Every structure is written in structure tokens, then in C-alpha cells.
Amino acid sequence: MILNHAIESILSRRSVRAYRPDQIAEEELTDILQAAKFAPSAMGLQGRHFTVIQDQQLLADIVDAAVKNGASFLPGHSPFYQAPAVIVLSVPESAKYGREDAACAIMNLMLAAHAYGLGSCYICCALPGLRDETIMKRMNLPDGYVPCGCVAVGYPDGPAPQPKERRTDDVNYIR
Ligand SMILES: Cc1cc2nc3c(=O)[nH]c(=O)nc-3n(C[C@H](O)[C@H](O)[C@H](O)COP(=O)(O)O)c2cc1C
Hints:
Elements lengths: L4 H8 L13 H12 L11 E5 L2 H13 L16 E8 L5 H18 L3 E5 L3 H4 L2 H7 L5 E10 L21
Antiparallel strand pairs: 1-2, 2-4, 3-4
Helix pairs in contact: 2-4
Bound molecules: flavin mononucleotide (FMN).
The site of flavin mononucleotide has 9 residues, from strand 3.
């Protein structure tokens, strides 16, 4: 494999689950959002919306709402890992490829975060909280948009975890 910055970045990114409490720098936030916006989207419609949540009370309320709506977390487990920022991706309810658009944007965002030395983790287990009526109102989403995923972002507290072995039985070729 030819190692260049892009490939090295892809190979060394890990899901980070421990963060320092300090807020991420404004310029870094702007840049990782810009990287996310450059992700591909179905028909180039850019049918996704980003909500940056840095209000810890709102994040705590999202966790409570998730539990109220059926999610369960281990005692003492915080699904956002005390990250200083969580970026929520929402898509129009009617969008045919909304989830796909959001997932592409999240991947770009995580790689850009990693390039800046930030940690990130794609988090879906909080969705029942993000989709709670009262929480959606507080997120001030555009009309008709529904959350479909989020990413915790912050400065990692400690070294990145080792990668899992990659499967070797998951590619076939038709030639
Ligand atoms: C769609 C999706 C949802 C995920 N949801 C969660 C989650 O709720 N909580 C969590 O800690 N990690 C979550 N992850 C992160 C995965 O657990 C992680 O990517 C996987 O274990 C591989 O580790 P790596 O990202 O370090 O390579 C999610 C990842 C994806 C792609």
C-alpha cells in the first residue's frame, strides 16, 4: 500500500471514547464541518443538516430522553463519553438517501477531526433521545428534518486504542 497522508489518516483513525473537558477550537470546528460538507451526497442535494451541541445540559437531557424512550445504558456509562461537542446529523424525513448522505458526511468529519488531532466517535445509541419531540424542538431543526446519527468530538484523553484485526473473508472478486 502506498502510504500518503490520506491513507495514513484513514488507517490510524480510531473511535475515541475518552475526552478532555476543554472545548474544541472554533477554527477546528469550522474546518471539520467544512470537510463534512464536502462529502458526497445523493444527486448532490446536500440533504443533511448539522447541529453542533456544546451545551452539556442538553446532552444530559438527550441521554435522559433516550432512556425514557427505551434505550438502556450500563450504570455510569455516558453514551457521549463526556465529549465537549456532539455534532448531530439530521436529514429530511422524506429523503430517499438521507442516512447514506449523513453517513458520508460523518465519515469525512471524523477523518478531518483526526487530521487535527481531535478524537471522534460515531454514536447511534443516543438516537431515541435525539428523536424525542422535545429534544428535536430544542435542537431547532429545519422543518421536516429528523436526526439520524451523531458524532462525539473532542481532544482525546489518552492514547488511541489499538485497531481490531480486519476480516480477511469479506471480499470476493468476479473477473
Ligand atoms: C453506524 C455506527 C454507529 C455507531 N454507534 C456507536 C455507539 O452508539 N457508541 C459507540 O461507542 N460507538 C459506536 N460506533 C463506533 C463503532 O463501535 C466503531 O466504529 C467500531 O467498533 C470500530 O472501531 P474504530 O472506529 O476504532 O475502527 C458506531 C459506528 C457506526 C459506523
